[in-house]
Write a structure and sequence with these properties.
3 helices; 103 residues; elongated
Length: 103
């Protein structure tokens, strides 16, 4: 038996076909078939990968992690009125030891 993604995918398609399930095949390099992933991949490459050299896996994880935080929580998105997709919430600071004035 062969192992590897291409062989597993063939066996999986055979099995799914046998039970009457069809899969959606997305042609590589076809942004019209999966625009979300293609758009993200292009942005990721243009904004990060093309300008970085990673000298270790740990360095890549840290830099990519910081970029993903910025991409999701800071970067303005035109379709959202130039707001970030998932803004970070801020917990209000509670000031202790101050009397509360009730009128």
């Amino acid at each position: 038996m062969y192992y590897g993604p291409e062989f597993i995918a063939k066996d999986l398609r055979k099995w799914l076909n046998g039970i009457g399930v069809k899969t959606a095949y997305i042609e590589p390099g076809s942004p019209w078939e999966n625009g979300f992933c293609e758009s993200f991949n292009g942005t990721f490459r243009d904004n990060l990968l093309n300008g970085e050299l990673f000298y270790s896996l740990k360095e890549a994880r840290v830099i990519v992690g910081e970029w993903v935080k910025h991409y999701n929580h800071v970067r303005p998105h035109s379709a959202l009125g130039y707001r970030p997709p998932a803004p970070q919430t801020q917990v209000p600071k509670i000031i202790h030891n101050q009397p509360i004035m009730i009128q």
